[in-house]
Design goal:
Elements: H1 19-26, E1 35-39, H2 45-54, E2 61-65, E3 71-72, E4 78-79, E5 86-93, H3 106-122, E6 127-129, E7 133-137, E8 154-165, E9 168-176, H4 197-204, H5 213-233, H6 243-250, E10 257-262, E11 266-275, E12 281-284, E13 290-293, E14 297-300
Parallel strand pairs: 1-2
Antiparallel strand pairs: 2-5, 3-4, 5-9, 6-7, 7-8, 8-9, 10-11, 10-14, 11-12, 12-13
Helix pairs in contact: 3-5, 3-6
């Protein structure tokens, strides 16, 4: 039930998510998902689920927020969207069957699941920027790229952040859906401009409707469950589970010149040639040596 003053709150012209419908569509006996919860506003869905994981909450909880006021991204960045304009949700996972050394594939798996669901719903052909940002081709950004940095046609549609707590991993997703251009934040230095499904669809397919957030979230959770079960049954093996070829197929980084900003302020420039069995980006430097990049920021170069 809506509060009496609900019509005066920002974002209420956008339909809310219905937890009951989502649970009915996604939760089923023997499946991964135990419950899908929707909260109107919170600081960070990742922080909320990490706290519950520490208290022993089981695998399979999904927490989604209509608004996040302290959303977190990779490398200390923030994720901000107007109420009900995005999908902002976190997943609580306990992949006991997967060796610790292979759990680094979970953020990449999430990227594959989200990208496949978005592509099936929209036909936009979004790609993955290593390790797991979703990119959309957006000609409107051609004047916004920094010289020598991001490709002028790349804009960030979604970001993913995985955080561990003991044997639990919480994976958070922020996906811009109906956010309008004037609501999107300006990019920071060297960062990609932001985009939304609405703006990308309007440019690529004028008149085509933006996918309903509820239907889109259900599709993402179904895609994630299928990939996660396959990956877990293969004990995290990215080849045997099919995850490695799927990620390679969706990659917008492999085959491009990149600059990696490594821990310790080191820079590595070269050609991204693949992803190894540990999920690390392989960058071929000027000497021809392939250097695995496990952490840091990777910029696509022109």
């Amino acid at each position: 039930m809506r509060a009496e003053n609900d019509t005066h709150r920002p974002g209420t012209n956008r339909p809310p998510l219905d937890a009951a419908r989502l649970n009915q569509a996604i939760v089923h006996p023997g499946g991964l998902w135990r419950a899908i919860e929707v909260t109107e506003s919170t600081g960070s869905t990742n922080a909320d689920l990490l706290a519950r994981a520490a208290q022993g909450a089981p695998e399979g909880l999904v927490l989604t927020a209509e608004e996040q006021v302290a959303g977190r991204g990779r490398l200390g960045r923030t994720w901000v969207s107007p109420p009900r304009s995005a999908l902002m949700f976190s997943l609580l996972l306990r992949p006991h069957q997967v060796p610790v050394a292979r759990r680094g594939w979970l953020p990449l798996l999430t990227g594959v699941a989200v990208a496949e669901a978005v592509n099936e719903a929209t036909g936009l052909g979004v790609r993955l920027k290593w390790p797991n940002d979703l990119l959309v081709r957006d000609p409107a950004t051609s004047g916004n790229a920094s010289p020598g940095n991001a490709s002028p046609a790349d804009a960030k549609l979604a970001g993913i952040l995985a955080e561990a707590s003991a044997d639990a991993i919480v994976t958070g997703v922020g996906l811009n859906v109906s956010t309008t251009p004037d609501e999107l934040p300006p990019p920071g230095p060297g960062a990609l401009p932001a985009a939304s499904l609405r703006s990308a669809i309007n440019r690529a397919m004028p008149g085509h409707p933006t996918p309903d957030r509820e239907v889109l979230l259900a599709a993402i959770l179904a895609s994630f469950e299928a990939w996660y079960q396959r990956w877990r049954q293969a004990e995290g093996d990215p080849g045997a589970s099919g995850l490695h070829p799927a990620y390679t197929h969706l990659s917008g980084t492999i085959g491009r010149p990149v600059r990696a900003e490594l821990p310790g302020s080191q820079l590595l420039s070269g050609l991204a040639v693949g992803v190894d069995s540990d999920g690390r980006l392989l960058v071929r430097g000027p000497s021809g040596t392939e250097v695995p990049v496990a952490a840091g920021d990777v910029l696509h170069l022109r």
